[in-house]
Design goal:
This protein has two domains: 10-62, no CATH class; 72-294, no CATH class. It contains twelve helices and no strands. The termini are far apart. It is an all-alpha fold and 306 residues long. It has helices spanning 10-19, 26-35, 38-45, 64-104, 121-137, 141-149, 157-160, 166-174, 178-187, 192-210, 246-260, 266-281. Helix content is 55%, strand content 0%. Helix 1 packs across helix 2 (26-35) and helix 4 runs antiparallel to helix 12.
C-alpha cells in the first residue's frame, strides 16, 4: 500500500487533533504547531491515546497545556543532561590522555601494540584516519601552530583528543588494554565494563540531544549497566535502579557529577526543573522509582553551587 495522506496546513492539523479530543484553544494550538512540528508534539500526547481506537482518539479531558508542558520540560531536561555529559566527556578526555601519554608516549595511539588484543590494524587505521581528517578540517589555533612548527603530520594525543568526536573518544577507551582501561575506571570508582557501558549510553544520549530527540518517556535503545550490588550497594538501596529509561541516565550522571564536580549545582537544577513540571510529566513513565530522592544514589548533603 502506498502512502497517500495529503499535507495539511497548521490550521488543518489543529482541527484534526481537536477532532480527536484534545482540549485546547484553537488559535494557540495553530500557533504552537507553527513552531513545533505536529509529529514532534504527537509524542507527548501519545500516552493519552485510547488503545486500539480506530480513529486515534484521546482520552476525554486531555489538555494541550499538559502536552505542551511535557514538551517544554523535555527541552529543559536536554539542556541539563547535555551540561553533565559535557563535564563527563571533558573529564574522561583529560584522565585518559594523561594516563595514556605518560605510559605510551605522545604518539602511542598510532601503535597497535599499545591497545588491547581486539584492536586490529583496520580498527586503528579507521580511528587514525578520522583523527587526521579532523586535524585537516580544524581551525583551532593550536593545530595551525603545531603544523607550522613541526613536521610530524600527526598531533600528540593531548592535542588530538581535543578535536576528537565523542565517538572517537569512546573507540579509544573501548580498545585500551585491560590495565589502562581499569586504571581510568577506578578513578571514578567503577569497573571498566561499567564505565564503558556508561560512555556508550552517553554517546547515544548526546546524539539524541543534539538532534532535539525526546528524552521524556523514551525507552532506551542502549541501556547502561547497573553496578553490581557487591561493589556498589547504593545502586540497589532500597531497590535496584532500572536501566530502561532516562532515570538510569540521570542517576549515572548524578554519580559521575559527584565524582567530577561535587560542588556543582547540577542536582539542584535538575530537582528544580522536575518540581516545576512534576504534575504533568508522570515520572514513572521516565523510569523514576518510588521515593526516588530517598534512594541511596540520590541522597547527599546539599552543597554550595559553583
Amino acid at each position: 500500500m502506498k502512502y497517500s495522506k495529503p499535507a495539511l496546513s497548521f490550521s488543518q492539523q489543529a482541527d484534526l487533533i481537536l477532532k480527536r479530543g484534545l482540549v485546547a484553544d484553537r488559535k494557540l494550538l495553530i500557533s504552537r504547531l507553527g513552531d513545533v512540528n505536529y509529529y514532534r508534539l504527537s509524542a507527548y500526547w501519545y500516552t493519552f491515546r485510547i488503545p486500539n481506537d480506530s480513529r486515534d482518539r484521546l482520552y476525554p479531558g486531555t489538555s494541550f497545556e499538559t502536552v505542551w508542558h511535557r514538551y517544554v520540560f523535555d527541552r529543559h531536561l536536554r539542556l541539563i543532561v547535555m551540561d553533565a555529559i559535557e563535564r563527563v566527556e571533558v573529564s574522561i578526555r583529560t584522565r585518559l590522555t594523561e594516563h595514556f601519554t605518560r605510559k605510551h608516549g605522545a604518539f602511542g595511539y598510532l601503535k597497535t601494540c599499545t591497545f588491547g588484543p581486539d584492536f586490529d590494524i583496520e580498527d586503528q587505521d579507521r580511528l587514525v584516519s578520522e583523527i587526521r581528517r579532523n586535524t585537516r578540517r580544524s581551525r583551532e589555533e593550536f593545530v595551525r601552530h603545531f603544523n607550522e612548527k613541526y613536521d610530524n603530520g600527526d598531533l600528540p594525543l593531548w592535542m588530538a583528543v581535543e578535536i576528537m568526536s565523542f565517538g572517537n573518544l569512546l573507540t579509544l577507551f573501548r580498545h585500551l588494554n585491560r590495565h589502562d582501561k581499569q586504571y581510568i575506571a577506578q578513578i571514578y570508582g567503577l569497573q571498566a565494563k561499567v564505565l564503558e557501558s556508561w560512555l556508550t549510553v552517553l554517546n547515544y544520549i548526546r546524539n539524541l540531544c543534539a538532534h532535539h530527540g525526546r528524552l521524556w518517556n523514551r525507552e532506551l535503545a542502549i541501556k547502561p549497566l547497573i553496578p553490581k550490588n557487591k561493589n556498589h550497594p547504593a545502586w540497589h538501596d532500597p531497590l535496584t535502579i532500572p536501566n530502561e529509561r532516562i532515570f538510569a541516565v540521570l542517576s549515572l550522571l548524578h554519580y559521575m557529577m559527584r565524582c567530577i564536580a561535587p560542588q556543582s549545582s547540577w542536582r539542584q537544577r535538575l530537582l528544580a526543573t522536575i518540581e516545576q513540571f512534576e504534575k504533568d510529566i508522570q515520572l514513572g513513565q521516565m523510569g523514576f522509582v518510588d521515593e526516588w530522592q530517598n534512594h541511596a544514589i540520590w541522597r547527599q548533603e546539599e552543597k554550595a553551587p559553583t
